[in-house]
Amino acid sequence: MHFEVLSEASWLKAGSAAPPVTTREIPRVGRAREWRALTGLLAAGDGFVALSGDPGMGKSTLLADLAAHAAVPVLAGRVGEFERSIPFGVFADALGERWRLGLDTDLSAVGRFALHREIRAVLERLAPVLLILDDLHWADAASLDLAQHLARHRPAGVMVVCAFRPKQFRLSQLRFECTQVVELSPLSRQDAARLLGRPVSPELHAASGGNPFYLEALASGSASLEAALHAEIDALTPECGHLLRVAAVTGDPFDLRVVAEVAELAVEEALTLLDELVSADLVRCDQRAYHFRHPIVRNVAYHSATAALRHNAHQRAAALLERLGAPAEARAHHVEHAAAHGDTRAVAVLTSAASGVVHRAPATAAHWYATALALLPDADQWEARWGHARALGLSGRLQESRGALHDLLSALPADHAIRPEVVAFCAHVERALGLHAEVRALAARELESTSDTTAAAVLKLALSVSLLQVMEKPEVIHALLDDVLAVARASGDTVLEAGALAVVALSGGDVGGLVRAARAVDGATDAAVASRLESVVWVAWSELRQGRNRESLRHYERALSVAYSTGQHHMLGNLLLGRANALRWLGCLDDACEGAAESAEVASFSGSRDLHTLTLAVHSWLLTLRGHHAEGLAVARRAVEVSRTIEGWHPTIARLRIGHALLAAGEHDAAVVEIVTAGGGAGLPKVPRTYRPEFYELLVQATADETWARRAEEIAHLPGCRGFAELAWTQVLLARNDFTEAERRAANATALFEEAGQRLEAGRARLLHGKALAAQGKKEAAGASLSLAQAAFRTCGAPVVSPQPAANTAVLTQREREVAELVGEGLTNRQVARRLSMAEKTVEGHLSRIFTKLDVPSRAGLARLLAAR
Question: What are the percentages of helix, strand and coil residues in the chain, rounded to 5?
Answer without folding.
Answer: 70, 5, 25
